[in-house]
Amino acid sequence: MKKIYKTAMYLRLSKGDEKDGESGSITNQRDFLMAFINARDDLELTSEYADDGYGGYDFDRPQFLQMLSDVNNKKIDCIVVKDLSRLGRNHLKVEEFAQLKFPKLGVRFIAVGNDMDTGREKTFNEMLASPIINLANEWYVSETSVKIRRSQEIRRKSGDFVGNFAVYGYVKNGKKLEIDEEVKDIIKQIFAYKIEGKSNKSIAEILNKREILCPMEYKLSKGIHTATHLKIHEKALWSSNIVKRILENPVYTGTLIQGKTTTKNYRDKQRFVREKSDWAITENAHEAIISDFIFDLVGDLLGLDTYSKDSNSCYLFSHFLYCGNCGKVLYRRAEKSNIYYVCKNKECENKRNISENTVKIAVEKVLKSHLKSVSKTAEPTENFIDTNNSPDVQKLEQEIAQIRETQETLRAENKRGIISNAEFLELNNFYENKITKAQFQINEVKKSRLKIQKCYKQILEKYNEYVLFENLTRAILVTFVEKIIAQNSKSINIFFRYADLFGGDKSGS
């Protein structure tokens, strides 16, 4: 009696296959295989499995794995595909399944387009053709991978957004990002909370109390399927890490950074971080939600802020008040209604307590005078525009010149035999490293100045906004003050962030 096989058709179409029109749609594959199965009297269609949108190199496809499970449960004993490339494009895995695993499981395998059928004895030509076909199929994966990588790299460098999902705060519109009007004010509020002195944890708690959907839940509410494995509760909540990622992401300033991670090739899916020089960084790629001025200010605060244990918020002068004797941070102490700052450095001779109210009065007085002076200014000073005039740059350049002189002295001593070649090379390498470090610092100072110049109108707007302030707050302090050095209650020096930009005094007391 002729055996009737419990037959399953397996269909697969990757995005690359669909784009190139290589094998038509899933529907066309189904129609093709139905015609083949209906024309055979030994095949009875019992199941269909379709992986639509899955590449052929990776065999961890949901429907393929389900089919294997049904094979193991004896629900299927024959698998039919349009051709070998539909089974996969990893030549070793395809050969393994077609020649070893399926026969071992008692499963007949038919690739119609390649005239391959393990239910009959193979000819020499069929045995020779199968590995070659599978190698050609994998070569297609390799070529497609290279083309996609090149295409994505070109698009990244041209400022196009290359990604499946837009970051929270934006929506994807074609090749560009556009502001999501529904949540842009949430982004602004998160940055404002940080400037006010709130911790990332307390910001998350505020957002949760306000019942604002976190980025994951917001995407899900919009019908965007995203990874949910990070959910701990039934409903995902804001966390300090989510807040931190938002505060550190330059995408909100209009800068698009792409290509930070990649894989070695289509075989190795392990991702690694690329060199920063290989990243695709595009400024003004889309409309900004946060100004560079605010973003940089928050960036400074992320590395400085400390918080009181009871409120998860910064005290007014946390990490802004320093000892005038040893330069260490002064710590806040409270005894009943008396609040003061003290140096905890045991080696410091300064043991005086400095009243918080005294510091506050002094800062308010000097800052008000500074704001009134600067708010009348319309343009940056010429000295600030010329980055070479920066005192920091000049100091570093003098340091490099002195190192060069030292190197010349070493060369002369080496020629006279005072020091050996080995000693000269060791010392010269040491000084070359110092020069490299100094040159890097020079570039960073210049970049910082250029960035501030770019933001000077935004900075000036802040000066005008707060010029008539009455009570000193954490937000006002961090916006305009770089640091405060206090020797005692009568010796308090305030250093301003942007005084030299507008030609004002860097410090006041």
Can you characterise this structure?
Helix content is 46%, strand content 16%. It is of the alpha/beta class and 509 residues long. The strands form six sheets. A five-stranded mixed beta sheet has the order 2-1-3-4-5, with helices on both faces. Strands 12-16-17-18 form a four-stranded mixed beta sheet. Strand 6 and strand 7 form a beta hairpin.
Give a nutshell description of this structure.
By secondary structure, this protein is an alpha/beta fold. The chain folds into three domains: 5-148, Resolvase, N-terminal catalytic domain (Rossmann fold), CATH 3.40.50.1390; 170-297, Hect, E3 ligase catalytic domain fold, CATH 3.90.1750.20; 368-508, no CATH class. The chain is 46% helix and 16% strand.
Topology:
Layout: E1 5-13, H1 15-20, H2 26-38, E2 43-52, H3 62-72, E3 78-81, H4 84-87, H5 91-104, E4 108-111, E5 116-117, H6 124-157, E6 170-173, E7 176-179, H7 184-196, H8 200-209, H9 215-221, H10 240-248, E8 256-258, E9 261-262, E10 272-273, E11 280-282, H11 292-302, E12 321-323, E13 330-335, E14 338-343, E15 354-355, H12 356-375, H13 382-385, H14 391-415, H15 421-454, H16 456-466, H17 474-480, E16 481-488, E17 491-496, E18 507-508
Parallel strand pairs: 1-2, 1-3, 3-4, 12-16
Antiparallel strand pairs: 4-5, 6-7, 8-11, 9-10, 13-14, 14-15, 16-17, 17-18
Helix pairs in contact: 5-6, 8-10, 12-16, 14-15
- Give Rg in angstroms: 34 Å
The largest pleated sheet is described as: 5 strands, mixed
Helix content: 40-55%
Query: What would you call the structural class?
Result: alpha/beta
